[in-house]
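Re: the request from the purification team.
They wanted to know what the chain is likely to look like in 3D before they choose a buffer screen. I agreed to run a prediction and write the result into the notebook, where they can find it.
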Amino acid sequence: MSARDMVVVDEPHAPRDLRDLRAPIEAVLFDLDGVLVHSEAVWFRLMEECGRVFRGRAVTREEFAPTFGQSTAEDVRTFGLACSVEELDRFYAENFRRFVGEILVSPDARPALESLSARGKPLAVVTNTATALAHEILDAAGLRRFFRAVACADQVPRAKPAPDLVLRALAALGAPPAAACLVGDSRYDREAAGAAGVRFIGLGIDGDARSDRLSALLEGALGEALLASPQAAPAVDRKDGTPRR
């Protein structure tokens, strides 16, 4: 494993006891865009068009770049669009499929999901994309079969960075926050994980642990925690370091 691919515990940014990262992880949640698939270029083309339709001028790349990953409600507000959240979600669903063939699937996604699934880990997607569109993307990527739950922005009152989506996914998996982690690539993911009380593994960004490649998550101490069965090692009590009974 190269230095670039190494998983590191990012101590200055870790809000929880670092021992938590070495305790077995029972459920793994994944952000969709930027983690499992890469569709930023497709979303930019779609946002250009929705700007023309709903405000009379295209959304520029400078406007779009800092907002990628935010919710539909935030799109309406940030870009000053003359439509409702429901209308914009319909626009996305109706027009995104024109570009769905251009989405790039992370080459590390399938091997990582297969490894986790083979060890009985319940997996979920947590995304600010609406349900119909998220399912279409996962189907096109050939990844939907790995997930027991797909928590989407139109299923909860508040999208990421609020904790609602993370908590919905955990409820569907039957997993407590302390036994789960979220793999994400944005501040929205990191803030949602922190608010929900789950460990955050940053893909290219700081978190309780950080990696520059999805495949590297399964290596080293963090990989042992991710791949271990729940019975393989006792969870560590955060206060005194003794195993929970």
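For the purification team: The longest strand covers residues 123-127.
Please add any questions underneath this entry.
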